[in-house]
Specification:
The protein folds into 2 domains: 125 residues, Roll (Diaminopimelate Epimerase, Chain A, domain 1); 127 residues, Diaminopimelate Epimerase, Chain A, domain 1. The chain has 5 helices and 18 strands.
């Protein structure tokens, strides 16, 4: 199986084209590919296939490393968009990709940067989970954003300890992604991410969007620079909660793997 390995802010994916697969990507195969000791190693697999509707360049299926599927990934979608342009699926600067969350529209800004039209966020409930007050929402996938007082409190959090209970909270059918954030200034926040099916990651595009939306709802300015462990993303949040995500992604290596 031929593949490329890409990363965006340390959030890494294996990219494969369905037509190059000898057999379908089962959950077991995905887990094997993502294993960092016996496989390629990744935070997930991006499977690209021809679209099944007119007006799209490709259909993107996002596999989590535990074998489940995600509706959308902001970092993964940027990697897929830049791969499609580089691999010759399209020469357009702006195009559409099918996902389980619906249409996404990337705009290529450079060989390593693109802006994603993420669509309109849908607000969910507010409440508490343990000691944390949260804002739940959907931006292609479920996000639970939690604001903390300052950078010291954010740094002290043990996400491996507190994340799973929120991910699996019965109020969030299908589980949820979680982002903890704190304001640095009116247009800049620091965030840490716990992704469902993954755990803590250096970055998440949709997680950054969730935190930025919660920040703007709390009175922050847009666009929001979101500072993550792996780098920075820019999230523009409109008055109607229409969201655009801008950031970079690069190829790491390509190769073939047996099995």
């Amino acid at each position: 199986m031929r593949f490329q390995k890409w990363q965006a802010l340390g959030n890494d994916y294996v990219i494969v084209e369905r037509r190059a697969l000898a057999t379908p990507l089962t959950p077991e195969r995905v887990r094997a590919l993502c294993d960092r000791h016996s496989g390629i190693g990744a935070d997930g697999v991006l499977e690209l296939a021809p679209p099944d509707a007119r007006g799209f360049v490709a259909r993107l299926v996002i596999h989590n490393p535990d074998g489940s599927q995600a509706e959308l990934s902001g970092n993964g979608a940027r990697q897929a968009a830049l791969y499609l342009r580089r691999a010759g699926w399209t020469d357009a600067r702006q195009f559409s990709i099918q996902t389980a969350a619906g249409e996404i529209r990337p705009t290529i800004l450079s060989p390593t940067t693109c802006r994603l039209d993420m669509g309109r966020a849908v607000l969910g409930e507010t409440g508490t989970a343990g000691p944390f007050a949260f804002q739940h929402l959907r931006i292609g996938n479920p996000q639970t954003a939690i604001r903390v007082a300052d950078a010291d409190e954010l740094a002290a959090l043990d996400l491996a300890a507190v994340g799973p209970a929120i991910e699996h909270d019965p109020r969030f059918p299908g589980r949820t992604n979680v982002s903890w954030f704190t304001e640095l200034d009116a247009a800049r926040i620091r965030a840490r991410i716990f992704e469902r099916g993954v755990g803590e990651t250096t970055a998440s595009g949709t997680g950054a969007c969730g935190a930025a939306i919660a920040h703007v709802l709390h009175g922050g300015n847009s666009p929001v620079t979101v500072v993550l462990d792996g780098g920075e993303l820019e999230v523009a949040v409109g008055e109607d909660l229409h969201v655009e995500l801008t950031g970079w992604a690069v190829a790491v290596f390509s190769g073939e793997i047996e099995g």
